[in-house]
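Consider the following input, taken from an annotated entry for HTH marR-type domain-containing protein (Marivivens niveibacter).
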Amino acid sequence: MECFYIPRNEKSTRSGQMPHPPQTIVEFATRFAISAELYQTVLQDRLRPKGLTLPQLSVLSHIARQQRPQRVTDIARTVQVGQPAVTKMVSKFHGAGWVDLVDAPNDQRVKFAQITAKGAEHLMTTQRSLLPELKPFLDQYGSDDINTVLKILNDFSNMLESFKP
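Applying the prediction step yields:
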């Protein structure tokens, strides 16, 4: 059963090419969903022995990417994890020495989290160990192939980001 309607005289959309047929769009979405689920499962299994969950890895990665201390509320909003959960994670990271907590200049009740050298090292070691099979897998493909896939993934991510309220 066909679930998409495409007019017969649909105009080309990219450099003279016709739009992708519905079955290709469904195949793309299905393959992406399956790959995302498998990737998450592998990461969860490999993070467990390192004492981290996927949301914790996301929060720690976000803190590490920032060039300045981050408020817990801003971290929670960016990584889309509830503020109480992020507060608990940041406390765990602080206890492990992975982040420093800095008082806000105007309000001592507000804390800012900043990655420490120990936290950055733990994150880098963890990230490198999560999927060592990825490099040999990607080495099978040329730079142009990888760059094309990266562009598609970035564009797809940006499209999904645009759906956020």
